[in-house]
Design brief:
4-stranded parallel sheet; globular; alpha/beta
Amino acid sequence: MAERPLNVLFLCTHNSARSILAEAVLNHIGQGRFKAFSAGSSPRDNQQPNPLGLRVLQNAGISTEGLRSKSWDEFGKPDSERMDLVITVCDNAAGEVCPYWPGQPATAHWGYADPSEGDGDEAHKLEAFRQTLHAIHRRLGLLINLPADKLERAMVQQTARDLAGS
């Protein structure tokens, strides 16, 4: 870990809410030890990050600069930046078939319910995003505070999977 940050890719279906929140949080708290990215298995045409998610991030003092919805195809190319850890964050994504990732990164599934679903008014949806942000932040706080030996290539997969129960 001394020579470069641990690259972490967060995946979800549309890359508009949970994976965007996780990317922003980890880049905010990662202390240079981590570099986060996010993508979706099938983002819609012209997909944008959910405005409520962006508002919750801004209210928490977390930068939203550069956040955009994108396909995981951007990260599966041979010349793409190598990922060390790929984490699915959709509550239903654990069964999705992921593409081949150059470098065979560790993988884990941290399911979160979609805060944009439901029939509530904007205040209720904003609270759902806030709760999701809090849950993601809590788990990522555990990840970034792990000792370096727990983040070695051989250990990172089991460590990330263990954190799914946190």
